[in-house]
Design brief:
Blueprint lengths: L3 H14 L2 H12 L3 E11 L2 E8 L7 E8 L8 E9 L12 H4 L20 E3 L7 H10 L5 E3 L1 H13 L7 H4 L11 E3 L8 E4 L9 E3 L34
Antiparallel strand pairs: 1-2, 2-3, 3-4, 5-6, 7-8, 8-9
Protein name: DUF3027 domain-containing protein
InterPro entries: DUF3027
Amino acid sequence: MESMTESADQTAAAVLTDAVGAARAAVTEFSGDTVGEYLGMTYEDPTAATHRFLANLPGYQGWQWAVVVAAYPGADHATISEVVLVPGPTALLAPQWVPWEERVKPGDLGPGDLLSPPTDDPRLVPGYTLSGDPEVDDVVVELGLGRRQVMSSWGRDDAAQRWHDGDYGPESAMARSTKRICRDCGFFLPLAGSLGSMFGVCGNAMAADGHVVDCTFGCGAHSDTPAPAGTGSPLYEPFDDGVLEVTD
């Protein structure tokens, strides 16, 4: 025989399923005549379910009214627990909010813009702290120069990795298209300090002029690129065919 508990659960399920009219009336009371097509029902648990209707609201294309109804086992009617407006699968939504400091990207800075470094930026350390680059530290001490902040060892490593992996690194399409590398190029100007062993600045106006390049980057404008064949004076002097006697 069917137990009383099973019977009560079935009764509650039937009451929840039949609460479509009550759910629609709740939306109408809450928001007026904005209830559209009935979209179906899902159970939250044995005593609660959610009825959904298409929302006919200006500016809310694809949104839905969700009405949560509840009924305890053995109840003869459902009660309204919640009426909310929720986005449907085709709803137009604003993009996910991103904090300001994460929205700013390299290249966004324009003339007159001010951009301070983040608080406790790991790329910077106080100026009285040695940078960890012996060549830089020795020069600063010798000249008596000082800055409030200098780049930390972590900051230099981060920059080096970014430059190595960027458009002027050895894995870029330009570098892979040639066998010549910047380290052997006459236009290559090495950086000072420890970074000079890996990076320099390109001084060729026809190449990566002014950009920091990896020493194993390369391009077709290398200083050792040979001139194309067929240029300059011809190998033999031209002859004047007007002095030739043409015979049959």
